[in-house]
Amino acid sequence: MEIRNIRTFIKVAELENFTKAALELGYAQSTVTMQIKQLEEELQTELFTRNGKLIALSAAGQEFLQYAYQIVKYDAMALEHFRADAQPEGMLCIGVMETVCASGYADLFYHFLKKYPGVSLKLEVSTTFEAMENLDRGKFDLIFLLDNRISRPNWVTAAEFPADISFFCAPEHPLAGKRDVPLDRLLQEHFILTEKGCNYRYVFENDLAAAGKSLSCDMEIGHTEFIIGAVSEGRGIGLLPYFTLKKELDSGRISLIQVSGYRIQLWVQVIYNRNRWISPAVKAFLRELELFGRELSAR
């Protein structure tokens, strides 16, 4: 059984498309078709069901996929074992939320690159759904989520950090620095929010709907710095993770609003797929992540 054929099978299984798999692998589609045919002949079973241009894993294909992950994983582990002294190198692909990039978490990425110059780091801003899907498809080595705790049987949560979601306003706003502001009073204001579907906005609006309440949103945009800038100019109330606001709070550019009897807390979660080979670059990043977590806890 050719290892390259097994890699091709995994890619086709994850993308459910021969053409897309060929493009990602840099093969002609005919090559991908031939490799899958060779595997099916060796295994004496159909790995995919075909309905015109649509394909899906057959029952046998779903079963073989688990073996395929392990074969590729152990192949890579064997190569790594005999290159044990080599420095981490190659591409490390991480899916991140936009708010994570616009915060102190960016220091983790900068420090990692400085320490491991042989690694090329690719950060791709993604929604939670996109990050989860691309982790399962093998596009991302790691993902940073900001959400309620999420788990799947094939996932490992390497680290998690609590994240308070905070209301904030301009320093001159009547609610600036106020404690125990009634939620009904806050809802009299106009909001500048991230796009609909963003996790913390979704939590807030769901809580309001459950209480028979609603808010007035004058502007929505999926860009943390823009929201902070607009709020600092007095254009409305913002809602963002506290870790993205700390620098601007320390400078006095914005002020927090504490709402009576209401709090949103989510988790920054760093996750990888246990079915995949954990490359030296991923292992090095996880070590730096552990150190970063200790420093974060000590602050």
For the record, the count of structural domains works out to 3
Determine the strand fraction and express it as a percent band: 15-25%
Number of helices: 12
Uncertain residue segments = none
Number of strands: 11
How would you spell out the order of helices and strands? HHHEEHEHHEHEEHEHEHEHEEH
Describe the structure.
There is one protein chain. The protein is of the alpha/beta class and 299 residues long. It folds into three domains: 3-82, Arc Repressor Mutant, subunit A, CATH 1.10.10.10; 90-162 and 267-298, D-Maltodextrin-Binding Protein, domain 2; 164-265, D-Maltodextrin-Binding Protein, domain 2 (3-Layer(aba) Sandwich). It contains twelve helices and eleven strands. It has helices at 3-15, 18-25, 29-43, 59-81, 98-101, 106-115, 128-136, 183-186, 199-210, 224-232, 242-251, 280-298; strands spanning 48-51, 54-57, 90-96, 119-125, 142-147, 155-169, 190-193, 216-220, 237-241, 255-257, 264-273. The strands form two sheets. Strands 3, 4, 5, 6, 7, 8, 9, 10 and 11 form a nine-stranded mixed sheet that branches. It has a two-stranded antiparallel ribbon with strand order 1-2. β1 and β2 form a beta hairpin. The model has no long low-confidence stretch (mean pLDDT 92).
